[in-house]
Amino acid sequence: MQNAVSGILGLLLLALLPQGAASAQDAAQPLVVVTSIQGELAESMMATLDRAITRAENAGAEVLIVEIDTPGGEVTLMDRLARRIEMTSVQPIAYITNEAVSAGAFIAMACDLIYTYQRAQIGSCCRSGCRWRRAAMRT
Questions:
Q1: Residue 104 is part of a domain; what is its CATH number?
Q2: What are phi and psi of 70, to 5 degrees?
Q3: Is 37 part of a structural domain of the chain?
Q4: Is 75 strand, coil or helix?
Q5: Is residue 104 part of a domain?
Q6: Is-above-0.85 flag for pTM?
Q7: Using one digit for the tens of pLDDT, what is the confidence trace for 74-119?
Q8: CA-to-CA distance for 14 and 66, rounded, in angstroms?
Q9: Beta strands 63-70 and 113-116: pairing type?
Q10: What is the DSSP letter of 124?
């Protein structure tokens, strides 16, 4: 999984190179800040996200990558996290490493772009304890 994250970060950096740049060595590397939302949503995630956004804005970062792997959580916290992402002056990009379900999908949609790992899942909201049959995913 770490190789996949490193790979996507590398691709994002290449995509941000100025037009006409001969190589990565010829152009200044854009500053990218990475933070993560993993596991069921918890209040501590608000402080972590806020610190990452503040660091990105103060450093003049071009991109904030939010790695997401969450089954969701409390609605009020979900809304606060998404609003904080929407308010940043740095371009937020969601990278879903495994799942962004329910509140996780909502948070991902607060970002300008959403990238997913090959077998990652996004969406699927339902009340706690419900059951559904998973459709086969094709990659």
A1: 3.90.226.10
A2: -145, 140
A3: yes
A4: helix
A5: yes
A6: no
A7: 999 999 999 999 999 999 999 999 999 999 999 999 999 999 998 8
A8: 18
A9: unpaired
A10: -
